[in-house]
Amino acid sequence: MNKKNAKIRQIIRIIINNKKKIVYSSIHHKKAYNLLVRLDVLNKLPKDFCIQYHHKNYWVIIDQFYIADQKYYIVIIDLSDFKCSRCNKVFIDLLTGLYNRNYWEQINNSSIYNYFDIQNIFLGLIDIDNLKEINDTLGHIAGDRAIKIVGRAIQKSIRKEDIGIRYGGDEFLILFFNQKQKETEKAIQRIREEIKRIAKTQQMEIQISVGTASYDSFQNIEDTIKMADKELYKEKRKKKKRKNNNESKKMKNKKSMR
Fold first, then answer.
1. Average pLDDT over residues 67-78
2. Global pTM value
3. Could you say which of 71, 84, 98, 240 would form a disulfide bridge with 78 (CB–CB 3.0 to 4.6 Å)?
4. Do 138 and 218 belong to one domain?
5. Contact at 8 Å (CB) between 92 and 85?
6. 114-124: string of b/e by CB count within 10 Å (b at 16+)?
């Protein structure tokens, strides 16, 4: 390949607060500020929805999010002369209305949580236990409806400053900021009840498992996800054991009735 024709791809991530001050940047803050001014970013901060625009050889994407009840803007700048396919406005999952995995990858870059005034973060993982059963018996449209119901329940049950993300197919990630464990447990319970309520109106039964873990700034947040994942599978194993015990009892009762 001719080196002169090879394009160097660099994506810059900058986070600014509501006062237009940089709180995190993947490049030097002075260079970042000059770039924000040159690309007119500070005059284009969105009020509601993510925006994307082209400026000479730059693609700029700006979105907003809340951490600890404070609004922040994430600015992603692609130093190339073609549309940024990896950091488009595809931050929102169309099915659930929650943030998606791409958004998570952006805000999780370089442990940016250490730059905010956050006393603690509780992380919740939610997984739909019976999605395969729903797909097999009711069809994939019903399966999508189940995922949508869980997304709606999460949106309705968490605070504005918390972040709900569709982490995978039927996995959801929630970040609870500056909230005690007891309050986090209450929020998880609200989600369970809301799922049950909405599912009932749709004549469906949706079963979920949940795992939570506390994030410590001295550890990697990916390790916290693994801890929450272990808790989630503990709940799954308990349910499976309970189900097997119930089936064994039913079999014994049938035999005794013969």
1. 83
2. 0.73
3. 84
4. yes
5. no
6. eebebeebbbb
| For range 14-26, the mean pLDDT | 90
Catalytic center residues: 170
Label residue 80 by pLDDT band (50, 70, 90).
low
**SS3 readout for 154-202:** HHHHCCCCCEEEECCCCEEEEEEECCCHHHHHHHHHHHHHHHHHHHHHC
User: Are 47 and 172 contained in the same domain?
Assistant: no
Q: Could you give the CA distance from residue 128 to residue 154 in angstroms, rounded to a whole number?
A: 13
| 151-168 per-position pLDDT tens digit | 999 999 999 888 999 998
Q: Provide the CATH number for the domain around residue 173.
A: 3.30.70.270
Which CATH number covers residue 40? Answer: 3.30.450
How many C-beta atoms lie closer than 10 Å to residue 198's C-beta? 19
pLDDT tens per residue across span 123-182: 999 999 999 999 999 999 999 999 999 999 999 999 988 899 999 899 999 999 888 889
**Total number of domains constituting the chain:** 2
